[in-house]
Amino acid sequence: MKVLLVEDNERVSRFVVKGLREAGHTIDHVENGRDGLFYAASESYDAIIMDRMLPGQIDGLGIIETLRQQGNRTPILVLSALSSVDERIKGLRAGGDDYLTKPFAFGELLARLDALIRRTQVEADTTQLAVGDLNMDLRSRKVTRGARSVVLQPREFQLLEYLMRHVGQVVTRTMLLENVWDYHFDPQTNIVDVHISNLRQKIEIQGEKPLVKTVRGAGYMMTAE
Amino acid sequence: MMLTKVTRSSALTLAIGYVALGVVALALFAAPLWYAWQVTIEDGRIEMIHDDVQRFVEVYDRRGESGLAEFIAQRVSLQIAGDRLLFMADRQLHPLAGNLPAWPSAVPNAPGLYTLTLDVGGRPTRTLVQRALLPNGDTLLVGRDLTHLAPIENRFWVGLAISTALLCGLGLLGGWLVRRTVLSEIDTISRSVTNIVHGDLSHRLPVSERGGEFDSLSITINRMFDQIEQLVHGVRNVSNSIAHDLRTPLAELRSRLEEMVVTRPTGEELHEGMADAVEDVDRVIGIFNALLRLAEIDAGAQRSGFVEVNPAELASRAAEFYRPAAELKGISLDFRDGAEGAVLAGDPLLLSQAVFNLIDNAVKFTPANGHIRVEAVREGEAVELRVGDDGPGIPDDEKQRVVERFYRGDRSRGSTPGVGLGLTLVSAIASLHGGRLDLADNHPGLLARMVFDDRVQAAL
Asked: What is the CATH number of the domain that holds A176?
C-alpha cells in the first residue's frame, strides 16, 4: 500500500517510515505543511498519516480540510500530541478518519492504518462473515463453529463481529474499546483481555483450532491459519 | 519597616484626634457654665445696686437730705460700705457725702445704669454704677467694684487651663499607650508570620483567651496558614507520590535494560526483554496521561461537550463491561436501576470513566466471593451513581484523604496495582458535573456515591 507521512519530527518519522516499510508499505515522507498538501493533492495514496502541528504556512488540520473540500476521500490518520477529547473531536470534524495521540505504540499505528485502508475495501453490507469453520450470520445473529452452534451475549457478538471483519489484521485493545464498547479513553485495565478470553472459551472449545491469536505488545488478530 | 511607620503615624493621629475631641468637649462644657456665671453675677449685682438705691431713697424720704448725707457718711466712716461706691451730690454736683472725693466726670449726664472705669482711691477701677435723682434734685451714685470678683474668674480660667493641659497630657499618653500595645500586637503577629513564612509552616500565631480583635485576626491568619500548609503538604505529597510511582516502573525498566546490556540476549529473549521494557514505559505514560486528564478536567474545559446522559444506561454498560473481570476473581457484580428514567447533562465518556474507576476500585479491594452492586438511583431531584462492595472499606479518617491526588491507603500501597489517581479523578469528574463524591460505609465495605444535586438546572 502507498502511504504518505506528513511529520516534521525526525525521530518519529524515521521510526514510522522504517516500521511501515518493514510491514510492506511504500512511504512518501514530507516534513512541512506546504509539501504535505502538494503531495496529498497531486499523488494518489491509500492512506495519509498527518501530524497536526507542522511548519510551512499550513497545519495538519488545514491540509485535511483543504483536501476534503477538493473531494479527496483518502483515509487520513491524524497524529498529535494534543490528547484532550476536544482536540480529538476537532481532528475528526476537520475530516480525519482516526486520531492517534503521541506517544503511541507502533503496533497501534500499524493496526489503525490497516483498519483504515481496509475500510475502504470491504463492503459494509455483507450479511455473512466466515473465518475458517466459524460462521456468523449478521441477519439472524447466529454463530456456528462447524456444526456446533455458539451462543453469545450481545456484546460478545459485537466483539466477534469486529474481529471477523478485520480478519488477518491486528486489532489493538484501544481499537476494540473504541469500536465495540464506544469507550474513547484508556481505562488502564486489562478488561478487554478478559472479554477476549471469555469469547475464546466459547468459540474455541477443546480440540478446535484457535482462531484468535494474541499479538504481543499490540493486541489480537483473528486468523484461520 | 513600612508597616511600623504607617502604624506609628496613624496611632499618633488617632491620639491627637482624641485630644482635640476632648478639648472641644471641655469647651462645650465650660462655655455654658461661664455664661451662667456671668449672667447670675451680673444680675445679682444689678439687683443689689437697685436695693441700695431703694434703701437710700427710703432714708431720704424719712430723714430728708441731711439725714441721708449723714447716713451715707456714717456708712462710709464705719466701712460698712466695703467695696461699695457711694456718693451723694447736690444739683451742681458738689459732693455732700460719700467715698469719692469729687463727682466723677466719666458718669454720663442722665440717670441710669452704667459700666465705667472710675478712679477709686487713685487707681482706675472697673465699676458698675447707677445714677439716681433724688426728689429734691440731688444726685445719688451707687456702684460696685467689678474687679473684686476677678480672682474667682482667674481661678476659673486657670482651672480650665489645667484641665485642658491634663486632658492633652492624658490623651497623648493614652494614644502612646494604645500605639505601643497595638504595635506590640502587630509586631508579634508580623514576627510570627515572618517566622512561619521563613521556615516552620506548622507554627501558628498565639491566640489568647480574651478573644479580642487581634485574636480574631490571628485566628483568621492561622486559618490561612492551615490552608497554605495543606496545599504545600498536598503538593509535597503529590511530588513524593509522583516520584515514587514513576520511579518504580523506571527502576524496573532500568534494571531490565542494564541486564540486557550485560547479558546481550539474542532472538526471542531479546524480543521479550524489549517488549517488557516497552510495557514499563507504557505504565509511565499512563501515569502522565492520567495527570493530564485530571488537569484538563480540573480546568473545566470539557463542559462544552455536555449532552443528555442516561445514568442508568451508562452505569449498566460499565457494570456489564466489568462483570467478566469481577467474575474471574469470584466476585458477583450486579446492577440495579432505580433512576426512574432520570437524565443528567454531562460528558458520557467522563462519567463512564468515573464509574469505571469506582468499579475498578471495588474489584481490586473486594475479596473472592464478595459482591459488588452498581446502582443508578433517583433521590428526589438528585441522581446518584453508586458502587457498593463488601470489601474491607475505608477507615473514616482516611475517607477524605483517599480523594487526594496520589493518596493510596497503606494497605494498597505496594500490594495493589494502581496509580493513586482513581478517586481523585472521580471526584474531579463529579464536581465538573456539579456533583460530589461521597464515600460511606456499606456495612461492611465501601459505598461510593456520585451525587448530582443540581441536575435539574444542569439538564439540557
From this structure: 1.10.10.10
